[in-house]
Amino acid sequence: MACWPTGRLLSTAARLVEHAWVEALDQLGLTHAGMVALHLLCSGPLSQTELAHAARVQTQTMSRTLERLERQGYVVRTRDKHDARRHSVVRTDAGTVVWEKSRTLEADLFPELENADAMRDALLTIISAASARRW
User: Fold this and answer.
1) What distance in Å separates the CA atoms of residue 111 and residue 62, rounded to the nearest whole number?
2) Sign of the Cα pseudo-torsion (135, 132, 54, 12, in order)
C-alpha cells in the first residue's frame, strides 16, 4: 500500500471508514441520516422542512428518516396548530441518549492521529478542489 497513489489510499480509507461507521451506527439502531437529524435537533424543535434544509436533503428524504427515528422512539413529530401540513420535530430523551453515544464513535473506532488538524486541512483542500471540478 505504501506505493499506492493518494487517490487510491483516500478511496480505500473512505470505504473502510464508511463500513465501520455503518456497523457502529447500526448497533445503536441509527443510520448516518438519523444521526444527522438527531444532531440538528440539539438546539430544540425544528420543522421537517427546516431539518431537511439544514441537512441538505429533500423533504421526502428527511420524512423517511424521521419516520424511522419516530418508530424507534428517538423523536416525536407533532402537527402545527396553525398549519396541518407542518410538523414540529423534537428529540426524545431516548434520542438524546443514543445521539450522545454516537458522538464518541469517531474516537472509539479510529486511532488518534498525531497531525489530525493537518490531515483535515488536506482533506478539505482535496474535497474543495474535486468539488470545483465537478460543478
Assistant:
1) 32
2) positive
**7-17, pLDDT tens digit by residue?**
898 899 899 98
CA pair distance 58, 66, nearest whole angstrom: 12
C-alpha cell at 48: 421537517
Q: Write down the H helix ranges in the chain.
A: 6-28, 32-40, 48-55, 59-71, 93-102, 105-109, 116-134
For 51-94, the pLDDT digits (tens) are: 999 998 999 999 999 999 999 999 999 887 887 778 899 999 99
pLDDT of residue 109: 86
Chain-centre distance of CA 125, in angstroms? 21
- Residue 135 — very low, low, confident or very high, per pLDDT cuts 50/70/90? low
User: Burial, 107: exposed, middle or buried (Cβ in 10 Å; 0-12, 13-18, 19+)?
Assistant: exposed
Q: In which order are the strands placed within the sheet that holds 75-79?
A: 46-47, 87-91, 75-79
> Which residue ranges form the domains of the chain, and what is each CATH number?
21-134 (1.10.10.10)
